[in-house]
Amino acid sequence: MSTSQWHKLYSAHVAAPAGVLFGLLADMPEYGRWLPGSAQYGATTDVEPYPVQLGSRYHDGKPGEPGKDWWGTVIGFQPPGSLDFHHTIAVSQLRATVDVHIHYSFESEDDGTRVSRWLVLDIAMPAALRPARRLILASFDKENLRTMAAVKQYAEAHPGASGHLPPVSRER
């Protein structure tokens, strides 16, 4: 098995308080309120303990669809400043395992918050399949850009939102 690491920083200015953004991203069972489903993501379920806290475990991706789901853990929880997740995803088609670390930071900035999402991937896969690594990276990049855009759009459209929020369209 060949192992490689990839990381990328995603950042956006969001016209909303850090506490609102932290709340949206920490309330994983309620992601469907602001994050429509995609080919890679359907829901986050089985969050325990809930409300989310340091050590909470969750079922992510497409729970209920074998091979399209994974389990993760909240490994950092410092409201309203930072939030960290870790999960491991098996990509069976490429005989790959992707160890995923996500770190969010929320910093006050002018009339809002600078949201930074640092994604670190450790990818283990057969050396012969390593050229297909770009497919894994493209998929993660697309989902991270989509998530950042969705949280920005929702938070700015619902100033002061927290707790149980009105749902967004689930159309794909």
Give a description of the structure.
It is built from two helices and seven strands. The chain has 172 residues and is an alpha+beta fold. A seven-stranded antiparallel beta sheet has the order 1-7-6-5-4-3-2. β5 and β6 form a beta hairpin. Residues 163-172 have low confidence and may be disordered.
Summary?
This protein has about 170 residues and is α+β, with helices and mostly antiparallel strands. The protein has helices at about 20-25, 135-155; strands at about 1-15, 45-50, 55-60, 70-80, 80-90, 95-110, 110-125. Helices cover about 20% and strands about 40% of the residues.
The shape, in one word, is globular
Order of helices and strands: EHEEEEEEH
Radius of gyration based on Cα positions: 16 Å
Helix content: 10-25%
Briefly note the structural class of the backbone. Answer: alpha+beta
Poorly predicted residue ranges:
163-172
Distance between the termini: 36 Å
Instruction: Give the total of beta strands.
Output: 7
Main beta sheet strand tally, sense and closure:
7 strands, antiparallel
